[in-house]
Specification:
With about 170 residues, the chain is mainly alpha-helical. About 70% of the residues lie in helices and about 5% in strands.
């Protein structure tokens, strides 16, 4: 362990860093949330790379596969934008990539995932499932429920702040 890491660990466990003073666990804040997000996303992106897919492509294709009904391109872009907070033009380019790769097809005014698109999402899900089980396994249900409530509230508040900024 480097001296910086040792100092950080000591600060956390003594309460002078992000910890509570009584536990080595950090207090939830934007940094801790970001670290968790990027750690999990890193795992997913590693799997996606083996399938020749990017994170935005996976998000858009998954949104199409899990939709209750076929969506128009504008509806799919809006749905993905609501999740990723990405630029609409970038998402449209991603949808175009999925169309050119024949993972999505047009059906009149709607987009539909192809069998290849559904199979790709299923393969990625199957490959990440054991990792997800190891990451989330053993966390008490009440901790997961509390984290879910906090993250839902943070998401709601952050979305409201983003709406103010982008008016």
């Amino acid at each position: 362990m480097t001296s910086t890491a040792a100092t950080s660990t000591a600060a956390t466990s003594t309460g002078t860093g992000t910890g509570t003073g009584t536990s080595a666990a950090p207090v939830a804040d934007a940094r801790v949330l970001g670290l968790a997000h990027y750690a999990a996303r890193g795992v997913l992106e590693h799997v996606l790379a083996r399938h020749g897919m990017t994170f935005p492509q996976q998000a858009a294709l998954r949104a199409a596969v899990t939709a209750d009904a076929p969506q128009t391109p504008d509806e799919l872009v809006a749905r993905v934008r609501g999740s990723l907070k990405a630029d609409a033009a970038d998402i449209r380019a991603t949808v175009d990539e999925l169309l050119s790769q024949r993972l999505l097809v047009t059906d009149g005014p709607h987009l539909r995932p192809t069998n290849a698109g559904r199979e790709l999402i299923a393969a990625v899900g199957a490959e990440t499932a054991p990792v997800t089980a190891r990451v989330w396994g053993g966390i008490p249900a009440e901790d997961l429920a509390a984290a879910g409530r906090v993250l839902a509230l943070v998401t709601e508040r952050a979305n409201a702040e983003l709406a103010k900024l982008t008016g």
